[in-house]
Structures are given as C-alpha cells and as structure tokens.
C-alpha cells in the first residue's frame, strides 16, 4: 500500500496582512501534477483544507478548481478531512457527488467513523470536533476531553475492524508520546497553529491509537514523527509564519505493509520562500530578494523610512524589527523599576511587586513561604559572615 500524506493546506491563508492564495493555487496545482504520475494508492489530506470556517469567494473558487482536478485527473482516490480551521459542513458539501468520482470528503464526525476501503486497506477518517460534539453523538457524559473523545471513537473502530487488513486512521490534533505533564507534549510547534482547547486537555496520548498500521496526522505545521514512523505529521506544504522559516516543507510518500514501512519525504518548492534575515540595514540594502522576508536589524538605532527603503529591494518584505533595541529598552525599564522599588519598599516587598510585574500573577502562599525562608537563610548567612 502506497500512501501520499499531506495536511494543513490552509487555503486562503493571510500572513502579515498578505494573502497567500496566489502562491497556494500554483503550488497545489503542481502537487496534483506530481501525483498524477505517482504509483500511490491513495492521497490523504489530514485536515485544515481551508484556513477559515467562512472562506471568501476567491478561496472557494480555488478550492472548487483543485477538487475538480483531483476528481477528474488523479488515478487514485483522495480523502480530504476537516480540521479545527475548517467548518465541517462546508468540507462535506457535495460529498455524495464527489465520492462517486473517488474523492471522499469527511467534514463531520459520525457515530460509526467513516471508513474508506481501498484495496487491502481500511482508512478511518476522524474529522476534528470539540469533545462536546462527540459526547452528544455517543450520548456519553464521560467524554470530557479530546483524549476521551478520541478513545471513544477508536474503541468504536476496534469493535468492527479486521486486524488482518491494513488499518489506517486520519486524525487532526495534538498526539504525543511524552507525558501529558510536559508543557509542550514533546512536539514541535509553530506560531500559525491555533490552540484546540485549554491547557493539556487538548493532548491525546499516542497509546490511544495503538494497533493502527499508520496514523496520518494533521494540525502541526512542522513535519515530524511521534515516536514511530507509523505515526507522523506531514506538516503544512507552505510556510505560514516567521517561526516556520527553517522548516523544510514536504509531503510524505508512505510504503506500508503489516510488517514494514518506508517513509519518503517529497520536497515542495514554494513560489516565494519565507526567510528571516538578521543583519544590518546597510548590508540588507546590498541585496535583493522576491521572498517573504522578516528583517531583524542589528543597527544601534532605528532607520528612517527603513521599511519603505527595504521594500524597493524586497517587494514582499513582511516586517521590520530591532531585537537588540527592544531588549535594551526592556532592561532599562526593569532597572528603573527596581531602583524605584528599592527606595520605596523592603526587599521582600520589592520581590513581590517584581514577580507580579514580570509574570502578571500573584505569588502563591506556598511559593511565598519558600521566598521568605530563602531570604531568612540569606540574612543569617550574611550575619555569620560578618561575625
């Protein structure tokens, strides 16, 4: 079984008030051209086909054209699933008509998860939904998190699956092999990913999907595996934030059997790359680029009309920052604050105010006990040294 795994197309994405749609249309049409000559058995797009639940008319027109090409020109079936950015009802629009031509649109969760049978494989599609929606589907009050929602859906799949076939599940969310106590779940993030829920309730442990031959994941924009080659995020096909500048975008080509897996990363060439340049203004003006560029200027003072002057050499410049100046200003601000506090308050009062200023929250009773104990020990230690 050969699988093409992609995700997070985010059609209609706007980055720094700049529409990415023109780039997306060209790149995604190129992908379809590549897949036309592929020997793959299925294409999977694991959520966030659109960037918004209410895409504008230009985005809908582009989506219609891309889906029509996949329906009419690709020799293999295609599975397109909704993510947390999509509106499931819109992904599923025209579902029955597309399915007759081999394009399976999964927009809303079903009590019996949708299964697409292709050759020796059963592909189970789990569109994104809040856990409350899954709780209503199953009339199960114990479903109080995304983890419990996923567990219920997977249990339903296991009740009907054939373990002798290749069992593949498509899921959109945070799946981690690390402890749920880990603040980031051992995953690699980017700034363009929208949180799914509050705190750690959005994470699903890897063991929930134990037994599947392949878990095709969407949501994270950086391609990565979760402990095993059989559990992978393909990542987004284009860079959608400054934090993704160092990503190497690709889709995955998976050769899968019950006993073996081979993963090939197929690179995707953008129309305009997205880069971060940390340099001086003078050095920047010696070069030109059509890429999307974020500048972090190292100059000792702001440059007059800096953005407009850079735009002459970099027509797609995204932003201009002065990180060193910002850090210096913050240091001066903290220093002034501490100087004032030192005059007005005791050391412990100063620490209390500083803690609230920096973290934006009050110190807890237990933490305050540690602070007072440490201060008392420091005073006693200083007194002994004087003796």
Given as residue ranges, the uncertain stretches (5+ residues, pLDDT < 50) are none
Write the H/E string, N to C.
EEEHEHEHHEEEHHEEEEEEEEEHEHEHHH
Architecture per CATH nomenclature, i.e. the level-2 architecture of the largest domain: 4-Layer Sandwich
Q: Taking all residues together, what is the mean pLDDT?
A: 88
Count of runs of 4 or more consecutive helical residues: 11
What percent strand?
A: 15-25%
Helix fraction by DSSP (H/I, runs of at least 4): 25-40%
Q: State the fourth-level CATH superfamily of the largest domain.
A: Metallo-dependent phosphatases
Descriptive account of the structure:
- It comes from Aerococcus christensenii.
- This is Nuclease SbcCD subunit D.
- Heterodimer of SbcC and SbcD.
- It holds the Pfam family Metallophos.
- Residues 1-222 form the Calcineurin-like phosphoesterase domain.
- With 387 residues, this protein is α/β, with parallel strands linked by helices.
- The chain has 3 domains: 2-267, Metallo-dependent phosphatases (Purple Acid Phosphatase, chain A, domain 2, 4-Layer Sandwich), CATH 3.60.21; 274-324, no CATH class; 346-386, no CATH class.
- Helices cover 34% and strands 24% of the residues.
- Strands 6-5-4-1-15-16 form a 6-stranded mixed beta sheet. Strands 7-8-9-12-14-13 form a 6-stranded mixed beta sheet, with no helix packed on it. A 3-stranded parallel beta sheet has the order 17-18-19.
- Strand 7 (114-118) and strand 8 form a beta hairpin.
- Helix 1 packs parallel to helix 2 and helix 9 (323-344) packs antiparallel against helix 10.
- The longest helix is centred in the C-terminal third of the chain and has 22 residues, at 323-344.
- It is globular.
- The N and C termini lie far apart (79 Å).
- The model has no long low-confidence stretch (mean pLDDT 88).
């Amino acid at each position: 079984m050969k699988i093409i795994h992609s995700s997070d197309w985010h059609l209609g994405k706007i980055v720094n008030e700049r529409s990415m749609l023109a780039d997306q249309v060209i790149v995604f049409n190129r992908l379809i051209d590549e897949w036309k000559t592929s020997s793959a058995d299925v294409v999977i797009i694991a959520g966030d086909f659109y960037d918004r639940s209410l895409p504008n008319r230009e985005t809908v027109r582009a989506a219609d054209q891309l889906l029509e090409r996949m329906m009419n020109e690709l020799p293999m079936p295609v599975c397109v699933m909704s993510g947390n950015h999509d509106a499931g009802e819109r992904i599923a629009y025209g579902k029955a008509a597309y399915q007759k031509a081999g394009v399976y649109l999964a927009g809303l969760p079903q009590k019996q998860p949708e299964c697409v049978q292709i050759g020796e494989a059963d592909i189970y599609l789990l569109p994104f939904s809040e856990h409350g929606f899954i709780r209503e589907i199953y009339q199960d009050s114990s479903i109080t998190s995304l983890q419990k929602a996923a567990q219920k859906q997977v249990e339903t799949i296991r009740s009907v699956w054939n373990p002798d076939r290749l069992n593949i599940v498509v899921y959109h969310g945070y799946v981690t092999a690390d402890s749920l106590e880990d603040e980031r779940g051992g995953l690699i993030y980017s700034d363009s990913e929208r949180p799914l829920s509050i705190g750690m309730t959005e994470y699903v442990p890897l063991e929930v999907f134990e037994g599947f031959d392949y878990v095709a994941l969407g949501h994270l924009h950086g391609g990565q595996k979760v402990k095993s080659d059989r559990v992978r995020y393909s990542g987004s096909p284009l860079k959608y934030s400054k934090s993704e500048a160092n990503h190497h975008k690709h889709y995955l080509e998976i050769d899968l059997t019950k006993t073996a897996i081979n993963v090939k990363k197929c690179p995707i060439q953008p129309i305009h790359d997205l880069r971060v340049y940390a340099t001086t203004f003078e050095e920047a003006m010696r070069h030109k680029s059509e890429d999307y560029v974020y500048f972090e200027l190292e100059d000792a003072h702001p440059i007059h009309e800096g953005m407009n002057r850079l735009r002459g050499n970099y027509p797609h410049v995204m932003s201009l920052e002065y990180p060193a100046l910002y850090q210096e200003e913050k240091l001066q601000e903290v220093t002034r604050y501490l100087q004032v506090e030192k005059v007005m308050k005791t050391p412990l009062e100063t620490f209390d105010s500083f803690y609230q200023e920096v973290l934006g929250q009050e110190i807890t009773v237990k933490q305050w006990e540690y602070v007072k104990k440490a201060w008392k020990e420091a005073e006693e230690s200083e007194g002994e040294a004087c003796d």
